Amino acid sequence: MPRVTSDAAAYIGQGIADHRRRVAMTQDQLAAGSGIDSSNIRAYENGRAMPSIHSLTRIAEALGLEPGALLEGLTLDLFAVSTHDGRRRGA
C-alpha cells in the first residue's frame, strides 16, 4: 500500500509543536504528561500520523489547552491526500 499523507495531519502536528514550544516543553515531557509514547508525539508533529480524538484531547490537556485550540483553522480541503507519486485524492 502506498504511503498516503494528509495536509491535515501536518497542520495539526505543526499546531501541537507550536503550542509545545510556546510552553517550553520537550517532546518527551509532552509524552509523559499526555501518557502517549514519545515516538507517537514525534510522528504527530512531523505530520506522519493523525492523532485520534482521544490522543488529541490528552495532548491538549497536557499543554493546558482546550482540544479545539489544536483544530483552529483546520479546513476540509486539508484532508485531501497525496500518494507517494504526488497525485492528490479527495478525502
Task: Briefly characterize the structure.
The chain is mainly α and 91 residues long.
Tags for this entry?
91 residues, mainly alpha, 434 Repressor (Amino-terminal Domain), three-stranded antiparallel sheet
- What proportion strand? 5-15%
Q: What structural category arises from helix and sheet content?
A: mainly alpha
Question: Cα distance, first to last residue?
Answer: 17 Å
| Helix coverage percent | 40-55%
Question: What are the segments in which pLDDT stays under 50 over at least 5 consecutive residues?
Answer: none
- The shape is globular
What is the arithmetic mean of pLDDT? 88
The oligomerization state is single chain
Number of continuous helical runs: 4
Q: Please, could you describe this protein's structure?
A:
It is globular and about 30 Å long. Helix 2 crosses helix 3 and helix 2 (about 25-35) crosses helix 4. It has one domain (about 5-75): lambda repressor-like DNA-binding domains (434 Repressor (Amino-terminal Domain), Orthogonal Bundle). Helices cover about 45% and strands about 5% of the residues. The two termini are about 15 Å apart. It has helices spanning about 5-20, 25-35, 40-45, 55-65, and strands at about 5, 80, 90. The model has no long low-confidence stretch (mean pLDDT about 90). The chain has 4 helices and 3 strands; from the N terminus they run βααααββ. A hairpin with a 5-residue loop joins strand 2 (about 80) and strand 3 (about 90). A 3-stranded antiparallel β-sheet has the order 1-2-3. The protein is mainly alpha-helical and about 90 residues long.
